[in-house]
Amino acid sequence: MSLRHAILTLLATEPGSGYDIVQHFKQSLGYFWNAKHQQVYLELRRLSEEGWLDCQVEAQSDKPDRKVYTLTDSGMAELQRWLREPAAANKINDALLVKLYGGTLIEADNLRDELARHVDIHQQTLHSLREIEKLYLALDDAQKAQHRLPYLTLRRGILGEEAWLKWADEVAAEL
Amino acid sequence: MSLRHAILTLLATEPGSGYDIVQHFKQSLGYFWNAKHQQVYLELRRLSEEGWLDCQVEAQSDKPDRKVYTLTDSGMAELQRWLREPAAANKINDALLVKLYGGTLIEADNLRDELARHVDIHQQTLHSLREIEKLYLALDDAQKAQHRLPYLTLRRGILGEEAWLKWADEVAAEL
DNA sequence: CCTTGCATGTAACAGGTTACATGATTAT
DNA sequence: ATAATCATGTAACCTGTTACATGCAAGG
C-alpha cells in the first residue's frame, strides 16, 4: 500500500481536495498512479485521523463545498520516512499478455482486434504525455529546474509507451 | 481478477500442480504475472469446485504428494470465453515513480542509491529474459511456430526492460 | 430534457498480503 | 547444524472494486 503516500506526495506540493487528487490521477499522473475516488476519500479520512493531514472546508457559491487537505509537520515527517525506505520492485499482472500467451485457443481475428484496441489506447496516452512534455520544454530554466523530477517521471511514461508501441508493431507483424 | 484465468491458461498447455504454477510465475512468467502460493492454492480449489479443473493426487517416494490439476472441457470453454472478452488496459501503480516525484524532499544520495538498486534488479531480469530468448531462437522452425505467442510475450518483457534501463540512464544523468 | 462536471460519501464484496503451520529430503 | 527445496494449506488482515446515494449548475 502506498496510495496514502502517493496522496501525501501530491499534497506536499500544494494543498488540495480529494477531487483534485483524483483529477491528477486521471489526467497527468495516470501513467504511474491510479485510484478510484472512493479509495482516495477513505484514505484522506484516515490520514487526517492519524494527524498527517489538516482539513478545512471551503464553501463555494455555485459548486459543492470542498474539503481542502494540507500536510501537517508529522505528515511531512511520515512522508520523508517513507521516501527514504527502499521500494519493492513493481508487481506486474498483465491480462493482455495472458491472452496473447493463450491466443492459439481462439480465432486470430479476435486477437488482432484486441491488439488494435490497445494500440489506440497507448497511442492516445503517448500523445497526451507528449503534450505535457511540450509544456515543460517551453518553460524557462528556473521553472524547468523546479519540475525536474516530475519531468523525469513523465519521461518514464513516454519511453514506456514508445516501447509498448514498438512491441505492438512486432506483434502485429507476426499476427 | 484474472489470476484464475492465468492459471487456466497455463494448465491449458499442460497439467500441473500449484507448486508448478508458482514456479512459472517466479521464473519465466514473472515479468507479466505474479501471485503468491497461498492465492494460487486457493484459486485452484475454487476452480475445481466450479468444475473447471480435475484434480489427481500423485504420490511421490522421496518428496511430498502433488495435486496435479487438469483442465476440464467446461474449464476450456470458460477460458475461451474469457480470452474472447476484451481486456481492460493495465493499471499501473509505481511506487518508485512516486518517490522520484517527491524526491526533492529527501537527500539526493538516497534517491541515487534507490535507483541503482532498481537498475540491478532490471538488469538481472533482462539478462534472464535474454537467456530464455536464446533458447527459443535455437529451436527449429516447427518448434518455433509452436511457441510463437509465448515468445511474443517474452519480447514484451525484453523491450519493456530495455526501455526501463534506457530511462534509468536518463535519470542517472540528471541526478 | 438529458448529460456532464463538481463534490462527497457508505456498504458489500472481491482480491491480495502476511503470518503461521507442517514435515521430509538434500545440499553446504 | 543450518538452510534450501519440495509441497500444501488456514486465518487474519489490508487494499481495492462495484454498486448505490445525493444534489446543484451549466451546456447542448
Task: Characterise this structure.
The structure is a homodimer of 175-residue chains. Chain A is mostly helical and 175 residues long. In chain A, 66% of the residues lie in helices and 7% in strands. A two-stranded antiparallel sheet of chain A has the order 1-2. In chain A, helix 1 (3-13) packs across helix 4 and helix 2 (18-26) packs across helix 3 (37-49). Chain A has 8 helices and 2 strands; from the N terminus they run αααββααααα. The two termini of chain A are 38 Å apart. In chain A, strand 1 and strand 2 form a beta hairpin. Chain A has helices spanning 3-13, 18-26, 37-49, 73-84, 95-101, 108-137, 141-146, 148-174; strands spanning 53-58, 66-71. Chain A has 2 domains: 3-84, Winged helix-like DNA-binding domain superfamily/Winged helix DNA-binding domain (Arc Repressor Mutant, subunit A, Orthogonal Bundle), CATH 1.10.10.10; 95-174. The mean pLDDT of chain A is 96. The interface between A and B is large, with 61 and 61 residues. Chain A binds a DNA duplex (28 and 28 nucleotides) through helix 3. Chains A, B: Residues 93-175 form the Transcription regulator PadR C-terminal domain. Chains A, B: InterPro entries: Tscrpt_reg_PadR_C, Tscrpt_reg_PadR_N, WH-like_DNA-bd_sf, WH_DNA-bd_sf. Chains A, B: Residues 7-80 form the Transcription regulator PadR N-terminal domain. Chains A, B: This is PadR family transcriptional regulator, regulatory protein AphA.
